Each structure stands twice: as C-alpha cells, then as structure tokens.
C-alpha cells in the first residue's frame, strides 16, 4: 500500500564491462564481513519485508505527528528481530501513547485463557491496556481517549480459533466508533495462503474463538481478513493496510526469511502451526491437545488412551501428508489436563505439509479415539464453538463423519472462490 524505499538495482550502462570485477570485489568484501563476525544489514538479505517496515519507511503524510495506539505483542518484529513497540516509539513521525495487549499479554508469555491486567511498559513508559482482562476484549473509550490512530500488528497462525483475529475485528469496530483510522501492518500467513479447509462458522455459534463465517483454515493474511470483515460485516472502519513485500501465497513461514518468535507459549514451531487448525479441537474434549508436553498441538493423548491401536487405525486410512506414532510423554505439573502425569499419546508426523489436511485429520482422530474408548471419551463445553457449529459433534456421535467432511470440503471450495476480491497477494 505504501511505496517501498528499497533501492532499485542500477541499470546496465557504459560500466557494464567492469561489472564482473565489481561483483568479485563485493563478494570478497561480504565474505570478509561474515568471517569477521560483522552482521550484514537485514536489507541486504533476500526475503519477505513485513508491513511494519513498509509503513515506517514511508509514513503517510496524513498520519505524521499522530498519537498512536498500538495493538501488538513481542512476536511482531521486523527482519532484524526488533519489536514494533521499540520501532514505533523511536520513530520521529509518530507518537506512541498507548499499547493494547491481546490474549497472552504484550510479551506473549501468559498461558491461554489467563486474564491479563493493565500495566506500564518498562522500556518506553507507555501505558499497557489489556484486551484480555476484566474490561473485556474490545478497546474502551477510555483506552482510546488520547489516540488519533489505531495500529494493529499481531502474528497470524492460519486458524479461525486464533483469538487475535477477534481482537482485530473488535478493535476495528472501536476505531470506527471513534472515527479514527485503523492501520493493519500485514504479515504472511505462516502456513501459506493457498489451502482452505473446513466449514464456515455458523453465526449462531459466534464467540471470541470465531466471530465471523470463515473456515477453520482460511488461508488469508490479517490484512486480507480485515478487508473481508470490514466489507462483509459492515464494520465501516477507515481501514488502511501496509502490505507485506515479497510474499507469495504458496510460501510457508520458513521460506520467508523472517525471524521466528513463538506467537503464543504453546505454539513453538511451524509444525505446531501446521497442526493447529485441527488439533485445537481437542481443547473441546477430555483428551489433551498436548499443552504441558514437549510438542503442544503436535500430539494428543490421555492416560487411558490405547495409543498404539489408535495410531495403527489412523495409519490404515492412508491420509495424505501425515503418519501417526504412538508415544508416551510426560505432562508438566500445572497443565490444565493431566498435569504431572505421563500420558499415552498419538503424534502427528507431517510428511508432506502441502498435502496434509489438519482439520479433517483431527476430526477423524477424535472419531477413532471415541470408537476405541466409548466409555472414557467425553466432549467438553467448548467443542461447538471451536468447530463452528454442533455438526461435528453430532456427526461423530452418529457415526456420520465422512458425509460431514465431504460437506465441509464443498464449503471450503466455495469460500476459496468468494474470498478472491479481498486477496492482496
């Protein structure tokens, strides 16, 4: 959206004959810098440029001198790993006056579901207002009293149940009510932007883990989602998006060149993110989704699980891109499920991430566990909110899951078409 300030390569001219020598000299110089331990500037490295860098390199004239309320956490960084908080606080054209913290807090360290209170950022002295505490999930008029523009930069993980997406939508509504611009500093979808999976959320089951009718795996960036929500849900925000540079929809996070920072305490790897749109459903059962183990969201289990039998059954299905392993893993004391115990677990080993479909796979795994342990397995109160309706629970209970999965595939294909006007990349 904003002009990039990255210099363009020099055009060939009368010095073309000496360019091979220049390249050799530059190559030797770069090698010496690396050998001597001198860091190469981030701008010299190929890869994706996040929206925060695009925005700060050329702040629009209408926003210069404005008081900024920043919705962010420690996972929102530039290519050098510097957090947005420090970048915006130091920028001469902007005045950071408020920080707004989502679930997990401004430093991303609080566990899921734990209320976060207001505080003050020690480094900048800027007040931090919680969007996951006693005052609810939306910015209040008091939080925005001195704010001229709301800026949003939080990592996306690719799944509908990620609460940061709801934080963004509620904050857009707050900005619209106050009549101030809402700026999204866009980032790549870490699990790619091509695959869409799962049914759209039924509005009757809207909650903070899914406000609007999008699929479980939507394949969109936060900027694209903001545009979709703003138009289809009638939010009416003065929405402006600082697009990411250099990202293509087929790229996964490890192909971007961006530094990895855990988006939350239990999403610690790209493999966890690849599983998350499906394995998050285990939060709505009495089977652990892996919190408190060494691989949250990559393995699920309980003390009573016959993991070897369930893993063998899942492998017999020949599902694309994944195999299943029976493992025994300890659970850390204090974990919400089976803390301090050892559990029998089924681990998902992804063999082809572009073929793997985590949503359907997770539901088939729940179905297999329930069939193997009908007297032990139980649904939790959040399952319908997580899956977006009561259909998954009822289909599994009735032994009709294959028909539902076929229905969901059709719904996902329809969304992949209808989202097209909102795609930026």
UniProtKB/TrEMBL annotation:
GO terms for molecular function: peptidoglycan beta-N-acetylmuramidase activity. It comes from the Bacteria. Residues 68-270 form the Peptidoglycan beta-N-acetylmuramidase NamZ N-terminal domain. Pfam families: NamZ_C (PF20732), NamZ_N (PF07075). Coiled coil: none annotated. Residues 275-425 form the Peptidoglycan beta-N-acetylmuramidase NamZ C-terminal domain. InterPro entries: NamZ (IPR008302), NamZ_C (IPR048503), NamZ_N (IPR048502). This is DUF1343 domain-containing protein.
